[in-house]
Amino acid sequence: MNKSPKQISFRHNILLGGAIRRISLICATAQIATLATFVPSFTAHLRTTLEDSPKTVVDEVWQIVNREFVDQQFNSLDWENIREELLARQYSNSEEAYLAIRKVLKELGDPYTRFLEPKKFEVLTNKTFGELSGIGVSITINEETQILTVAQTLKDSPAMKAGIQPGDQIIKINNKLTSLMSREQAAAEISGEAGTNVELEVLRGDETLFLSITRAKIEVPSVSYELKEEGQLRVGYIQLDEFSAHTAQQMKGAIEDLQTQGVSGFVLDLRGNPGGLLFASVDIARMFLENGKIVKTSNRGEGDREFSANRTALTDLPLVVLVDRNSASASEILAAAFKDNGRATIVGDRTFGKGTVQSVHSLSDGSGLAVTVSRYYPPSGIDINRHGVSPDIMVELTREDKKQLRNNPDLVATTKDPYYARAIAILTE
Predict the structure, then answer these.
(1) What pLDDT does residue 105 have?
(2) Which end of the chain is more exposed for a tag (fewer CB within 10 A), N or C?
(3) What's the 3-state SS for the chain?
(4) Domains in the chain, ordered, with CATH?
(5) What is the arithmetic mean of pLDDT over 305-323?
(6) Active-site residue numbers?
């Protein structure tokens, strides 16, 4: 007697991700959902193969795509036959199964529906949660000395409480010489499960420090801000790196703090922001927008859903938004909502052009799948996928401008930054 596959539980979240500027960790508060997917009946032989890992993961991926993928025609693929073929194969290890999964996902013709092996999926989920397990320190290899050096410590982190300072040189980690490590290897050695200890030997000038630091869950800041005085103008400059689970709360704190300092306008910098969580972008839009539509999503199963402002804006002060070609996804939702409602002046370059939403699932072996589940449209209704959002004011950087900003990060958000300089001119006018 033929039976349909058993129901499988997956952890999932709505994710918006776009241009990749580095290894990106984007995820949010996970929810549990059961996917009761209707699939065609199949033979006893195929039922047996499902119990034989790694075929379980192969079939989990097939079921998720079968239920959720935005293109109901599956790019004209015979999706049922593909399942039969996938489960008829023998996989000697997980890597062979992963290779087969990636190959069949590529046939969907969607670059954002993608499979992630366990380590990469862990990185993704950590970033989307906006949390990491470690001591709260960023490290770099000093270009002159080639020594592992502390670049920054996060506020209230174990590293800061232990007295770690920017410029400290880390000589050993858990009694292992860092001179033999890459930056990535050192970061992996420092990070670990919350509650465990990491032993550091640190050189500060002529002083050697031996520190035992207990790792903890750390909220990663995605919002940074400062008050800038530009002549008679008091500007609240906010840089938003990505949209994680904690971003909206961090943005709220930034707006409220800057307003207490008497700012006369805001510059919101979305340059290089690859995206993140859909709901984080909606929440932030509502902080600046009192009325109006924000975004509409459209998917296979649920139809259209609209998100609008809800009269909870925190400020009505003038706003300029900076974007570039690497501002993607959730950044584009925010920029388009402000532009279409006349709430802000958008300055910079045309954005990346990603108009789809992904749902992220954890699979039974710790790997993950991001599958495109819907498309989104700004209030204007224009499809921005592959087209992007056009700024109100285009600013073209010369090759020298790009080189200066790349090599001298301290010039960003100064009058030597053409994007920022134009924003200040607009606020002044």
Answers:
(1) 96
(2) N
(3) CCECCCCEEEEEEEEEECCCCCCCCCCCCCEEEEECCCCCCECHHHHHHHCCCCHHHHHHHHHHHHHHCCCCCHHHCCHHHHHHHHHHCCCCCHHHHHHHHHHHHHCCCCCCCEEECHHHHHHHHHHHHCEEEECCEEEEECCCCCCEEEEEECCCCHHHHCCCCCCCEEEEECCEEHHHCCHHHHHHHHCCCCCCEEEEEEEECCEEEEEEEECEEEECCCEEEEEEEECCEEEEEEEECCECCCHHHHHHHHHHHHHHCCCCEEEEECCCCCEECHHHHHHHHHHHCCCCEEEEEEECCCEEEEEECCCCCCCCCCEEEEECCCCCCHHHHHHHHHHHCCCCEEEECCCCCCCEEEEEEECCCCCEEEEEEEEEECCCCCCCCCCCCCCCEECCCCHHHHHHHHHCHHHCCCCCCHHHHHHHHHHHC
(4) 1-130+221-429 (3.90.226.10), 131-219 (2.30.42.10)
(5) 97
(6) 329, 340, 354
